[in-house]
């Protein structure tokens, strides 16, 4: 049946040959790539929210070059260890172009597991790219601030550098379900910020508790990368939050840079949903 819910009335969506429909008659067509659009107009902050097609392409080139593979490998292990028996459900909130969800599926299939996997992102360009490549995962365009999924429908929810919405995550996860957050370490991309800013800064370190969740553990992953050429460096820049807020002088310095060495680091934070 699946976990998607009607973004208008909240009822269960049933997948038919060419569309999803709810008992109230609301219908959502399947795109030719296989994804469904579940973003109501009142959830859109612009005509085409989220990453653009160019940003999605840059992200895909960078990730598929393997620069963040150690982070993906760690996420795969943590998700595998968090799965219950049977046919569990995994939701990637803020899935982007599908890199982490796709590699997770490949990892689990090799291990003999076959969970139901879903991905959600507000960017239509990102979801289209994800659905086109990763056919075994059901993707939807939607907002993580109002996830179009049934309550208590997922066993594991992953969030890699996306905004964190504890109330929605607690609603969607089943009791005992696991939330895996990936947040940047204090020195993540510090070498990039040394070029972009006159006064580079470290990311904030937080020990955060969320209502409805019990904190399990923090798993750090650290490394270093070297990027060569304007295109590879530009691809990294385009997939960071600095892309939209860096002063012109910093952008010009980066454009002149032909080699970039920088620290990279993710902290994976694991939580378990508590209560009924």
From TrEMBL:
All residue ranges annotated as the Methyltransferase domain in the record: 89-201
UniProt: Zn(2+) binding residues: 6, 9, 22, 26
Residues involved in S-adenosyl-L-methionine binding: 68, 97-98, 188
Keyword Metal-binding appears in the UniProt entry: yes
Protein name according to UniProt: 23S rRNA (Guanine(745)-N(1))-methyltransferase
The EC number(s) this enzyme carries: 2.1.1.187
GO molecular function: 23S rRNA (guanine(745)-N(1))-methyltransferase activity; metal ion binding
UniProt KW Thylakoid keyword: no
Pfam families referenced in this protein's UniProt entry, alphabetically: Methyltransf_31 (PF13847), Zn_ribbon_RlmA (PF21302)
Residue stretches making up the 23S rRNA (guanine(745)-N(1))-methyltransferase N-terminal domain: 4-46
Gene assigned in the entry: rlmA
UniProt KW keywords: Metal-binding, Methyltransferase, S-adenosyl-L-methionine, Transferase, Zinc
Enzyme class, spelled out: transferase
